[in-house]
Design a protein that fits this description.
Elements (H helix, E strand, L loop, with lengths): L1 H24 L3 E2 L2 H11 L3 E6 L5 H11 L2 H6 L4 E6 L9 H14 L7 E5 L5 E6 L8 H8 L3
Parallel strand pairs: 1-3, 2-3
Antiparallel strand pairs: 2-4, 4-5
Length: about 150
């Protein structure tokens, strides 16, 4: 009986992780702001730039789970050009070239190195709005207000 419970637990856990990965993979995150600007110019959509420390920033990890992986955000995401700027500690997460690029973007748009941080830009790269931080209470209402007032 104990083994059956263990196997069932593993199967349910794996299924939920796969479901989360599927949700995340449905988002089209770009990693190059210049490409995003070109896309924004063509589509007339605002650019959402998300600064994260994907492997060390606990609020970033929680925000991904609570906000970016939510059905509500996914439904709204098609009205935005999404750009992910990651600053991980581990060197195997992104390439050295991508990290160098990300550091350049962080220097320009997030010089205080605040994580997590979201910016809304126009197609010329002008910052229209910004929001930083996330609470452990799991309240994403301010984040949705931020998105809603910019789409």
């Amino acid at each position: 009986m104990k083994n059956l419970f263990t196997i069932l637990f593993i199967l349910v856990s794996t299924a939920s992780l796969l479901a989360q990965d599927t949700v995340t993979s449905n988002l089209n995150w770009l990693t190059n702001l210049e490409k995003a600007k070109k896309e924004a110019k063509k589509t007339k959509k605002p650019i959402l730039v998300y600064f994260t420390g994907s492997d060390w920033c606990a609020p970033c990890i929680k925000l991904k789970e609570d906000f970016f992986n939510s059905k509500e955000f996914i439904d709204k995401s098609d009205k935005l050009i999404l750009v992910l700027i990651d600053k991980p500690f581990r060197v195997d997460i992104i390439s050295e070239k991508q990290l160098e690029y990300n550091n350049k973007i962080i220097s320009k748009y997030n010089p205080k190195k605040t994580f997590p941080k979201m910016l809304i830009l126009n197609s010329k790269g002008k910052v229209l709005d910004e929001m930083a931080g996330y609470s452990y209470y799991g309240d994403t209402s301010n984040h949705f207000d931020f998105i809603n007032r910019n789409i």
